[in-house]
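call fold(seq) -> tokens
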Amino acid sequence: MFIPTQVRPSQFGNGIFTTAPVPKGTVVCFFSLGGQVITEDQFLKEVQNNNPEIIRTATRYVGRYFVHGQPDADHNFVNHSFTPNCLCHCGIVLARRNIATGEELTVDYRTLIDATDIGTWRDATTNRQIKGYPAKETLLRTARELIEIIESIPDWTG
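ret:
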């Protein structure tokens, strides 16, 4: 984590919460640091085999590649929201908006998981199924949003 945080109970089980304000556009963490890159086919096979390390730590990296690892990393406690306060683009997590001290960090898991029905994830708030976007759609969605965030901050430096 590149910002001060604390893991503690949340409505999702455990979550990660800010311990200081986080301005919009701040780089929050990088899921890919120290991770191992695998193909989407490898990811799907491991999810189908109920591999807890893959299920807990793997996220879409870019295209048909996923990254996994760091089972003890605090960023594994970033939970899902259909209205998240963070964006994940190719493993880099940024604040989508200003985030207040004490807020739980969330991302839209649809940009982190596959578009098949192999793994079943559900939103803790609505119980709605979370189904990933296809690789191309994920990259286009997150790239567009990343550009919007950065363009909206005149003095953005990272």
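Residues 105 and 136 are 25 Å apart (CA to CA).
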